[in-house]
Amino acid sequence: MVKQAGQATADKAVDLGLIPGPVRPAAKPPELTLIQGDKDSEGADFTFIDLFAGIGGLRRGFESIGGRCVFTSEWDKYSQKTYRANFPDDDHEINGDITKIEASEIPVHDVLLAGFPCQPFSIAGVSKKNALGRAHGFEDKTQGTLFYDVARIIAHHRPAAFLLENVRNLVSHDKGKTFQTIKDVLTEELGYTIDFRVIDGRHWTPQHRERIFIIGFRENQGFRFADMKLPDAAPKLVDILHPGDGSEVPDQRFTVGNSGRVSDKYTLTNHLWSYLQRYKEKHQAAGNGFGFGLVGPDDVARTLSARYYKDGSEILVKQEDGKAPRRLTPRECARLMGFDAPQGNDFIIPVSDTQAYRQFGNSVVVPAVKAVAEHMKPHLFAALGKRPKAALG
User: Fold this and answer.
1) Please, are residues 358 and 306 in contact by the beta-carbon 8 Å criterion?
2) Active site located where (predicted)?
């Protein structure tokens, strides 16, 4: 039964024009349990849908525990191109604007994944929009309300579980009111048991990247993030940089010659480097926190952002012989985000450097998602009443 507090939350959202009507769980079709419990799904242990898919970071985490993607939604045409290039064997098309897709058109699934747009809640996004006098959070009618599209799909399909991902600032945005609304909709309105945790990708890759993961189960499976142990490994930037000494296969798009030296096009111009240094001094004198992130091989980088293509200021790699620092190459960004292994180059980057930087800056640290998926796995399989196919003798 829907609790009154949850209904009040949804009614408020309706009054604000954020959703067309109350988000109430749809009646569960009598055949749903049979479909979820008995389908083979071409050898997969479970099925999932990938909303606001980007370039497939969440998907990679759940494929690693035996899942199969049956529906993808991503509106950006350049991200679609990268997604298709790296998942060429899909038996479904990439759907565009999720707001124009009826929940009934989406296949039945066991798990819903959604990294709903984070810009309305991110520190950078809020600061920029405040400066421009624009709305942010749920007041951002173009992106902030997309959470309710996730909610209506959950309400219709009632998946066994879901994973939502967003920036850490979601927790504190609007003095916690935004996150409280999200929790109320998920628990009181939709009836799911949830837990959440802010996790730093630093445990898997040399980058400080804190993201909140929200896990929900239709039936309480006793899932707790507190039981999840994070690795003690401390990767350094050297693990993902082009060594430039001939020890890796040359990547002609990003490096030069047999040695694999990074192309000079990634080195900042003297003009830009001087500008960044002056800008930093100006803000430090004023007591502001702006500054570029100058890093060496033994360091850990700041958070890679979608604006990295502009000047690369948050992660600038030191160079020898008095040269100005350089940006990371898109290949190094793929490694930094865990789409490629250290020194790997398997991830296909079919778009321009500008689009690649945007895509990696908007994505998730893949090994972190894999770790969350692994922690979720026994609870998910208990919810589905099955064991992994690999465990069946």
Assistant:
1) yes
2) 118
Comparing CA positions, the residue from 23, 21, 31 lying closest to residue 2 is 23
The average pLDDT across 199-224 equals 97
* Residue 333 falls in the annotated catalytic set: no
The residues, any chain, with a CB within 8 Å of residue 110's CB and separated by 6 or more, are 36, 46, 47, 48, 67, 159, 160, 161, 380, 384
pLDDT of 344 strictly over 50: yes
Give residue 173's pLDDT.
81
Check whether 393 has a pLDDT greater than 80.
no
Residue type, 12: K
What's residue 196's pLDDT?
98
Q: Which of 118, 186, 190, 380 is flagged as catalytic?
A: 118
Specify the fold of 237-348: DNA Methylase; Chain A, domain 2 (3.90.120)
Is domain 4-233+364-391 given the CATH code 3.40.50.150 in the classification? Answer: yes
Sign of CA dihedral 82, 68, 377, 144: positive
Dihedral angle over CA of 73, 144, 198, 64, nearest 10: 0
Cα distances (Å, whole numbers) of residue 59 to 14, 66, 162, 297, 364: 31, 11, 12, 30, 10
Phi, psi dihedrals of residue 294, rounded to the nearest 5°: -90, 120
State how far Cα 126 lies from the chain centre. 18
Query: Where, residue-wise, is CATH 3.40.50.150 in the chain?
Result: 4-233+364-391
* CATH 3.90.120 boundaries in the chain: 237-348
Select the more confidently predicted residue: 363 or 291.
Answer: 363
Task: Give the pLDDT band (50/70/90) at residue 35.
Answer: very low
Core vs surface per residue 164-183: b (16+ CB within 10 A) or e: bbbbbbbbebbeeebbebbb
Give the model's pLDDT for residue 305.
Answer: 94
